[in-house]
Structures are given as structure tokens and as C-alpha cells.
């Protein structure tokens, strides 16, 4: 696991060219571990006639068989005993099904390195205390979702003076408390400490909408930030474009667009994608992104739309080395951004249902389902 450690210790979080060889070695190292320790994963590789030794050059990473997120939502795959896993996290669940991903110490330790490097780059850490408005779930013993753990973890970027949650457990289920959030915003807006928001953009929009209807305006203290992640989930029909949300945030809260930061990630791919000042998700050294044709699953050229295939050697406990999402995206040349980072950046443009993927990705899922 030495190559994984070298990769996550790399000084620059966006030096894709400088880490090309190390990334390949780390992927081969991870693939070998999964092959030797997860019987199902080994059989999948053999089904597609692919061995860890076939990873000879960077281009071979595109040939590595990937697992659709659908697989993890229907099957639990681990590559080490649960006793060696420090935590298990789940996805938020789709139609009652969710992925369960195990994290061993090494994976979590390298994940911490990643967060520290990316966080310092985006100036997320401060010794100055802040009040937190979590636009998501209040932690509960029955809630093991990664999005809840991540949102709470973000409240550790600065000393937390208070935490207000938009979703609280009432009568055994989560219910929104937008009035409580608005009351907290008004209270903290009169104070001298900054306010930090963290969570779903949908709930930020609902809060801002309600404040606008009630003619409530605040000017949050200097240093306040809005950190968004998790997407719009079941509220996709109410989704507004990013610029509309940025403008409304400044109008209602007094927080400028430069202090609105967005994250992208998934429990099946726990790499931290943080947008640059131009609001683009540059691919960090800890991962690689392949965009694939929806019909053939062959890699497409830079700038063309397709399914998003995410690769990272971060975790050994679960075979999430290469996963196929149901997101549609475009990979752009980093030089087009203008922020100074040359690493390619990922644009998410939509989502496609798993049933629409009629290729070898479905074949892998069917192969596993037939063995269950």
C-alpha cells in the first residue's frame, strides 16, 4: 500500500501530470489487493479477462472493469473482515436501497490528508469560531449515511460555536425545520462571529425563498461562507441554476458568490471534489475521471458528454477502485477554466437511470445478481 500513501502525500492536490506514474502504481496495487481478498471482485475481473498485471501503462486504467453503483446498492462487497474496518457508511438510498462501504484505517488516514490539502487550498480552515447551519440531517444513531457524516465533519473546519440542523428527527422520521433555521440565521446575523452553511443546495434555496417571501434580509458577519454538497436529490424538479442561487444568497444573506463553495462526491467514490473560484470541479490527484459513451461505454474525447466513470485507489476495505455512476458529465481541459489549475475539470450535466445502460456495465451487475 506504499503507492497509495505516496499519492495521498503528494504536495499539490492537482498535479495530475506529476502523479501519473504513482497513480497507475497505486491503482495496480489496489487492484491486486481486491483480486486477492474479494472473491466476487476476482471473479468479475476474470469474467472480463482482466488481471491486475494488465495495468501496465496509464491508458490501461480505462480498460479496468468498473462496477456500477447499482451493484453496491444491491450487494455488500468487502475485501477485509469487518473487524478491520473503523467505520461503515451508507448512501442516502435509492428506492429503499443503499450502498454500504467499509473504510479501513489507511483509507481514512489518507482521506484526512486529502481533506487537509484541499481544504487549505480553498481556505476552509480557520481558528476563528463560527456558527454552523447544517442544511441536512441532524446525526442520529439510526443514520449512518455518508452525507450526514460529511456535513457534520465540515463543522470541524473551524471551532463550532453552535450547530443548527435543517432536518431533525420527529416521531421517528426526519422532518424539515426551516423556521428554526431562519430564526438561527437572524440571531447569528446580529452577532460578530461568522456563520457557515453546509449541506444540500435545495434546502438553502427553500430557506432563502421563505425569507424572501417574509421580506427577511440579514447581513451576515464577515467571513461567513456557504458550503454546498449532496445535490438536489428528490427536489430535482425545483432545481435552479447555480447563478440564481448565488445571486439569491447575496441578496438575502449578504454572502458574496466568492464565499459560496460547492462539493461533489459519492459514498462509492469518497474523493473530495471542491470547486475552484470559477466554480469548476478540477480532478484532484487522488482520482481520475473517464467519460464513456452511453451506448458503447467506450471513452469519449475531452469535451464530449457521457457517463461518468470514477477511479480512485483510496480504499482497500471495499472494491470501489473503479465505479460507474449514473451521472452524465463532460470532462474539460483545465486550461479552459482560467483559475490557473491545469488539471481537467468535471461538469455534471444530468443523470441517467441504470436500466438505460445496456452494455457491459449491466453485464457485470447481471453476473453478480446471478450468483447471489
Q: Evaluate the radius of gyration.
A: 21 Å
Overall geometry: globular
Q: Please write the string of helix (H) and strand (E) elements.
A: HHHEHEEHEHEEHEHEHEEEEEEEH
Helical fraction equals 25-40%
The portion of residues forming beta strands comes to 15-25%
Distance between the termini: 31 Å
In a few lines, what is going on in this structure?
It is built from ten helices and 15 strands. With about 375 residues, the protein is α/β, with parallel strands linked by helices.
Commentary on this structure:
- Helix content is 31%, strand content 24%.
- A hairpin with a 2-residue loop joins strand 5 and strand 6 (173-176).
- The chain is of the alpha/beta class and 372 residues long.
- The radius of gyration is 21 Å and the shape is globular.
- The strands form three sheets. It has a seven-stranded mixed sheet, with helices on both faces. Strands 1, 11, 12, 13, 14 and 15 form a six-stranded mixed sheet that branches. A two-stranded antiparallel sheet has the order 2-3.
- The model is unreliable at 357-372 (pLDDT under 50).
